[in-house]
Amino acid sequence: MSEILQVNEIAAKLGLKSPWKLLDCARKNDETHFAGFKNFTANEQFFTGHFPVHPIVPGVLQVEAMRQLCCCFLPGKASEKRISKLEKVKFRNPIVPGDRIVVEAEVVSEESGVWVIKAATKSNSGVCCEAVLTICKCEEAVGGIKDIPSLDCECPRNSEIAMDTDKVMQLIPHRFPFLLVDYVSKVEGSRVVAVKNISGNEPFIEAGFNAVPDVLLCEIAAQSGCTSVLARPENAGKLGFFMAINNAVFHRQILPGEQMVIDLDMPESKSRFGKGAGVIRVDGEVVAEMALMFAIVEA
After folding, report:
1. Do 218 and 212 meet the contact criterion of CB atoms below 8 Å apart?
2. CB distance 56 to 112 below 8 Å
3. Do 105 and 132 meet the contact criterion of CB atoms below 8 Å apart?
């Protein structure tokens, strides 16, 4: 017999509130098949920053909706489950204000508290996103950093940085609450190194997360890479669209007070499609690795 959860039951189970409530209804069909539903309205907070002129649901939030659906029904405490790996994530059709989506998820395998999930989102235009997620059980992150960090960091914000926040905003259309790059420290050929500080005032912290949602690490990397690609003369005035996450591995959660250094290689391409790959570090420790694909299009 199926089990159905309504929006407030989902929020209570996940411990989340607006603007990160990404399911209006969830249904457990059986032990390995789940379905969810979400109405998108122009009043969604993230539309104000992604993108202000032509609002689109961030692709990574579709992946987060998949995680939320699974966490409603997988055994154990929902807040103790996070994504440890993403594979074969493809963003096929945009979701815009007024769209309605169905989220479908199937448990492909489970072993020792690690679930491999095949999932998709669909609108009346067809498949919007497909992904393979590995969800693992882990101890819930609590609090933040444990001591005052040194200000002598890997990439300090000084007069020698390649791009400040204003320059970043001239190149990419993202704005609050979805601008996820504070500055670009350096651009050396195809290599870009960017920085994102994590604050206790982040909207996702206010919404109930104790650490950076794993899917946001891919968005942070994508925005960092796009700043360098769109700064190239041949791409002046163009836009970068997130097309795929070929692979991403998340080693640990990032807490308020920590500083992320995003280090990517973004090779030049004659095609409008490009690829980038790299790592995210905190205090020299690699906390995430990923390979992404994007498209550069006319604005």
Report:
1. no
2. no
3. no
d(CA 257, CA 55): 30
Q: How many residues does the chain have?
A: 299
| Residue 258 and residue 145 in contact, taking contact as beta carbons nearer than 8 Å | yes
Total-model pTM: 0.95
Supply φ then ψ for residue 293, to 5 degrees.
-130, 145
CA atoms within 13 A on the CB side of 121: 31
| Residues 183 and 164: beta-carbon distance below 8 Å | yes
CB 63 within 8 A of CB 130: no
pLDDT score, position 150: 86
**Structure tokens, 14:** 């996940």
Contact 182, 195 (CB under 8 A): yes
Judge contact between 133 and 67, C-beta under 8 A.
yes
pLDDT bucket at 138, cuts 50 / 70 / 90 = confident
C-alpha closest to that of 203 among 53, 13, 58: 58
- The closest of 187, 193, 157, 182 to 280, measured between CA atoms, is 193
